[in-house]
């Protein structure tokens, strides 16, 4: 395949769905001007994230949308020829899920429900139950949602399933228990980058990490959206400010180079783990 123009978004979203939709539209429009072919928006791009993880307010939850909601259809239409990943609160059979969709203007290519949940989420969201890769116009792709990337098995499952690109959609805040005065000194800031680079390098895949910026309630989000190569090198990033990290990546060539001598997936020994 030829090189792919990839964009990782750092932006803030709210409970106001019309505002969020207009921001999504503006980001897609900007990405299209830059000839982006794969755009990864953050978790909770429609409706925002929880305002408090220690004690979520049940009267201030992100709006829950069914897959056939007109707002979802509008994002699909906006995507057009672009592959767009975005997160929202999904309503299904009376339950809420923290969900990521991957779409083009032709419809839904893939869906992931967040599997791993920090304690506060468990009171609000039901957990997903699987990880799977799927084919897209820009190659085989898999998705994770923020806390999923803390667990090496999540990205490894996607890589074993053939994902060349892993999109990780995040609503990743600064430390809740020990917030540093400067964001770049925050423990969660260091972990966020560490997980991104480790998951890419250990699986020798391209990882596209998006994240929220700004604040909701007591939650302050890191930004730090980035594109990471299969050697764990950061190719492009936004730091803590809103924006889009954009890079042209020859995904297959980068992966083949990384796996030329050491091919981690082929050299696994599952029988002894």
TrEMBL record:
<protein>
    <submittedName>
        <fullName>Carbon-nitrogen hydrolase family protein</fullName>
    </submittedName>
</protein>
<dbReference type="InterPro" id="IPR050345">
    <property type="entry name" value="Aliph_Amidase/BUP"/>
</dbReference>
<dbReference type="GO" id="GO:0016811">
    <property type="term" value="F:hydrolase activity, acting on carbon-nitrogen (but not peptide) bonds, in linear amides"/>
</dbReference>
<feature type="domain" description="CN hydrolase">
    <location>
        <begin position="4"/>
        <end position="251"/>
    </location>
</feature>
<dbReference type="Pfam" id="PF00795">
    <property type="entry name" value="CN_hydrolase"/>
</dbReference>
<keyword id="KW-0378">Hydrolase</keyword>
<dbReference type="InterPro" id="IPR036526">
    <property type="entry name" value="C-N_Hydrolase_sf"/>
</dbReference>
<dbReference type="InterPro" id="IPR003010">
    <property type="entry name" value="C-N_Hydrolase"/>
</dbReference>
